[in-house]
Design brief:
Layout (H helix, E strand, L loop, with lengths): L2 H15 L2 H19 L2 H8 L17 E25 L7 E26 L2 E12 L15 E2 L6 E4 L2 E21 L2 E26 L6 E8 L4 E14 L4 E12 L7 E7 L2 E7 L5 E15 L5 H13 L11 E27 L7 E26 L2 E11 L3 E3 L17 E5 L2 E10 L2 E18 L2 E27 L6 E28 L4 E15 L4 E9 L2 E9 L2 E18 L12
Length: about 600
C-alpha cells in the first residue's frame, strides 16, 4: 500500500472522529478560501482560458467541410450517335428503287471504379469546394469490321441477292473530372450537392462501317466495304451532376450521385461504297458527322473526411465509438415496417447452351481449317421504377426481414425490325468473313425473333448487420416473378465466293411464337442502406434474377455447301430451354412507418 493510500485510510476516519465544532470550523475555512479565490485576480486568469472539449464532444455534428478522399464504383451508360446512314438500291430489272435510312447509334453499359479527392469550405450550412477524380475499369471492346456487316442477307429485288448493312463501332471513355461542388447540409447526417466542371476522356476507334456483298446472275458477284473514322484523341467536355451524402460516422461518408458528361470533339470522315452488278446499283453512305457523345453515370463512393475542427485523435475516438460502442448500434433503430420506391436499371440476357456451329475446309490444305461451336445470347436493357414494402426485426446489431416489391416499366424486347428475307433485315449478329484466297466465305448466325421479357415482382428474405448507427449492409435471397412472350428462334445467312464459280448464297430464319407465360426464378442480391434521418434511409443494391424457360422445340437454320475448293458448314439451332438472367441495379428511398421494437411504436405520431 502506498504512503498516499495509508494517509487517506487514516485521515478519513480521523476527520470523522473530530468534534462537530472542528468539522464546522474546517468547512467555514474552506468556504472562506473559496470566496477569496472567487474575488482574486487568479480566478480571472483561470476564466480567461478557453474550455477545450476532448473526445467525442469535440465534434460539430453539422460539420461537412475539410479535405477528403474516397473510392467507389459506378454504372455507366455510354451513348454514341453518328447520325444516319443510307443504303440505296436501284434495280436493273423489276422492282422499285429504295433508299433506307439506318441509325448509326450505339449504347453500352459498363461497371467502372473511381478514386476522388477534394476540399469543401463550410459557412454555416452552406458548402463550396473543388474536386477531382479518376475512373478506371471495364472498356467497350472496339474492332473494325470487314466485309458485309452485320449478318443481314436477303433478296433486294427480283434477281439479286444482298448481304450487308451500315453499322457503328467504337467508344469514348471518361478518364476523370475536375469540377466545382456546392452543397447544403439538410441535417447533421444528410447533405445534398450539385457539381459542374470539365470531363476528360479518350476516343477509341470511333467510326462506322459500310459494306455489302451483291450477286446477280450471270454477272460476277462483288464484296465491297469501307469505313468512316474519327481519329483517336484526348477529349475535354463538360460535366454536370448532383447527389447526396450521408454520414456513416463523423468522418466516414457515403455518397450517391449522378453525372452526365458530354463531348463534342469527335468528327468522323464519312464513307461511301457502291457496286453495279448486272445493272443493279447498290450504294451505302455513312456521312461525315460530329458525333454526339454522352456518358451518364450513377455511382456510389465511400469518402473519408479530415474535419478541420476536430483533432485526428478526437476523430479516431469518434470513429471507433461509431463502429464499436455507440448506443445507437444496439438501439433497434433499423427494425420495423417500412415502404419505399425508386428506380431500377434492368439488364436482361436471353441465352442458351450450345446450338451454333461453323466449320470451313479449304481442301487445298489438310484437315479442317476453321471450326467453332458455342451458344447464343442476346442482351437488352430497360430502366423502370419499383415500389417495396417490408418488415425488419433487430437483435443486437443483426437484423432479419422479409420484403416484397413491384416493378413497373421493366418490359424489354429483343426485336428484329425485319427478317433476313429482306434487304437490310437484321438477324441480330455480325457477319464474319473468312478468307482463303481466292475464296471468301462470310457467315452470320444469330438468335432471332421478337421476344419480350419483364421482371415484375420479388419476394425475398433479408439479412443485415449494423455497421454504424447510420449504415447497414445486407444480403437477400428469394423468388423472382416475371413474364415472357413473343417469338424466338435462330437465323443463318451467308455468302461464299470462289471465282470463277457462281457464288454460294443463302439465308433462313426459323422462329416459334409463344403466348405470354409466367416465370418463377431465384433472386440473390446485396447492398447498403444509409440513414438520412431516423426514419428515412437511402438504399443502393444489386439484384440477379435467374429464370429457366422450357418450351416446345423450335428447330434451326443453316447455311453451307461447297464451291471451288472451299466447303462451308454452319448451323444455328434454337434450344427448347433458354436461361433468362436479369442483372438489376436499384436505388431506393425507404421510409419506416412503425417500429414495434422502438420506444415509440408509431414513428410519425406526435
Amino acid at each position: 500500500m502506498t504512503n498516499t493510500a495509508v494517509f487517506s485510510a487514516i485521515a478519513v476516519p480521523a476527520f470523522s472522529a473530530l468534534p462537530a465544532s472542528a468539522q464546522t470550523a474546517d468547512r467555514q475555512s474552506s468556504a472562506q478560501r473559496a470566496a477569496a479565490i472567487q474575488n482574486s485576480p487568479a480566478r480571472d486568469a483561470m476564466a480567461a482560458q478557453p474550455v477545450v472539449p476532448v473526445g467525442p464532444t469535440a465534434a460539430n455534428p453539422w460539420s461537412w467541410g475539410g479535405f477528403y478522399f474516397g473510392v467507389g464504383w459506378g454504372r455507366e451508360k455510354k451513348s454514341l450517335d453518328q447520325g444516319t446512314a443510307y443504303q440505296t438500291l436501284v434495280p436493273g430489272g423489276p422492282g422499285q428503287p429504295s433508299n433506307e435510312p439506318v441509325r448509326l447509334d450505339s449504347t453500352n453499359y459498363l461497371n467502372r471504379g473511381h478514386v476522388l479527392g477534394g476540399y469543401l469550405w463550410q459557412y454555416e450550412r452552406f458548402l463550396i469546394g473543388a474536386e477531382g477524380d479518376y475512373s478506371f475499369g471495364d472498356r467497350v471492346t472496339a474492332s473494325i469490321p470487314f466485309g458485309p456487316e452485320p449478318g443481314y442477307c436477303g433478296v433486294g429485288t427480283t434477281g439479286n441477292y444482298i448481304c450487308g448493312s451500315p453499322t457503328s463501332f467504337g467508344s469514348v471513355e471518361t478518364k476523370g473530372h475536375l469540377r466545382g461542388v456546392a452543397g447544403f447540409a439538410i441535417t447533421p447526417e444528410l447533405m445534398a450537392f450539385i457539381s459542374g466542371g470539365a470531363a476528360f476522356g479518350r476516343s477509341d476507334t470511333v467510326g462506322s462501317h459500310v459494306g455489302f456483298a451483291l450477286a446477280s446472275s450471270p454477272a460476277a458477284p462483288v464484296i465491297v466495304s469501307g469505313n468512316s473514322f474519327a481519329p483517336d484523341k484526348n477529349l475535354t467536355g463538360t460535366s454536370i451532376g448532383g447527389g447526396i451524402q450521408v454520414k456513416a460516422s463523423e468522418n466516414l461518408i457515403a455518397r450517391l450521385e449522378y453525372l452526365k458528361d458530354t463531348y463534342n470533339d469527335v468528327m468522323t470522315s464519312g464513307a461511301t461504297v457502291q457496286a453495279n452488278v448486272n445493272g443493279n446499283i447498290v450504294t451505302m453512305t455513312s456521312p461525315s458527322e460530329k458525333v454526339k457523345v454522352t456518358n451518364e453515370t450513377i455511382r456510389a463512393s465511400l469518402i473519408y473526411r479530415f474535419d478541420p475542427n476536430v483533432s485526428p485523435s478526437a476523430a479516431a475516438a469518434l470513429n471507433w465509438k461509431s463502429f464499436t460502442t455507440d448506443p445507437g448500434l444496439y438501439a433497434n433503430t433499423w427494425a420495423g415496417f417500412y415502404v419505399g420506391g425508386g428506380i431500377t436499371q434492368n439488364n436482361y440476357e436471353v441465352k442458351q447452351e450450345g446450338g451454333m456451329s461453323i466449320s470451313l475446309d479449304d481442301n487445298t490444305t489438310a484437315g479442317t481449317d476453321f471450326s467453332r461451336q458455342e451458344g447464343f445470347s442476346r442482351k437488352m436493357d430497360r430502366t423502370g421504377d419499383h415500389l417495396l414494402i417490408g418488415y425488419r426485426a433487430q437483435w443486437n446489431r443483426f437484423w432479419l426481414g422479409i420484403e416484397g416489391d413491384f416493378e413497373f416499366n421493366s418490359l424489354s424486347s429483343l426485336a428484329n425490325g425485319k427478317s433476313p428475307g429482306q434487304f437490310g433485315g437484321p438477324s441480330g449478329a455480325n457477319m464474319t468473313c473468312y478468307m482463303f484466297p481466292p475464296a471468301t466465305s462470310c457467315v452470320g448466325l444469330a438468335m432471332a425473333g421478337n421476344l419480350s421479357v419483364e421482371s415484375k415482382n420479388h419476394l425475398r428474405l433479408m439479412g443485415g448487420f449494423v455497421i454504424t448507427p447510420q449504415l447497414s449492409g445486407f444480403f437477400s435471397y428469394g423468388k423472382s416473378y416475371g413474364t415472357v412472350s413473343g417469338s424466338i428462334g435462330s437465323s443463318a445467312g451467308g455468302f461464299t465466293i470462289s471465282p470463277p464459280s457462281f457464288p454460294l448464297l443463302g439465308a433462313a430464319t426459323v422462329t416459334r411464337t409463344f403466348a405470354p407465360e409466367n416465370l418463377i426464378g431465384t433472386s440473390i442480391g446485396g447492398g447498403f442502406e444509409f440513414k438520412a434521418t431516423d426514419d428515412l434511409s437511402i438504399r443502393g443494391e444489386y439484384l440477379r434474377d435467374t429464370y429457366t424457360w422450357s418450351h416446345l422445340p423450335i428447330g434451326g437454320a443453316g447455311f453451307g455447301g461447297s464451291i471451288g475448293n472451299l466447303t462451308t458448314n454452319s448451323f444455328a439451332a434454337a434450344s427448347n430451354v433458354h436461361q433468362i438472367v436479369n442483372e438489376a441495379y436499384r436505388v431506393s428511398l425507404v421510409y419506416r412507418l412503425l417500429n414495434p421494437q422502438g420506444d415509440s411504436f408509431c414513428s410519425f405520431c406526435w
